[in-house]
Design goal:
about 160 residues, Thrombin, subunit H, binds zinc ion, four-stranded antiparallel β-sheet, about 40% strand, mainly beta, 2 domains, elongated, 2 helices, single chain, about 10% helix, Chitinase A, domain 3
Amino acid sequence: MTNSNNTMVLGFHYTLKNAKGELLDQSDADAGPLYFMTGSGQIIPGLEQKLLTMKTGDKANLKLAAADAYGERDEALVQDIPREKFPKKDVEIGQVFEIQYSENDLRLVTVTNLTLENVTLDANHPLAGEELHFDVTLEEVREATEEEISHGHAHEPNGHHH
Ligand code: ZN
């Protein structure tokens, strides 16, 4: 039986490196592939398009320019906040906070610098400005279930994962 809109679930293993060849992220060989549902926005569109051209067992390399991945860095998203306005007293470089910019705009910000007066916050995605190099292996392709479509995400084979 085919679901009405050909929504698929794909499982794949990956390693992700930047242009310098440094490892940024990888799927967990023990925990199994990463699963996503097509059209759910869970993975980068360019990566989703590439995986959709592959068959189970295929391996591929994919290079994505920053603009096609997490976007270019926007220096306007780097802001100095006076320490007396920052709610947390013992803050360290590299810490990540959720900040509610407006009602529907919750962002992750990273502390990138500290002075006696200011805390510097960077609201760019941590991978903004990075050219991404993926090595992927497509492990599984199947149609999404009605339950997955109603939830808007893929369910892992060994149970309900949210
Ligand atoms: Zn669900």
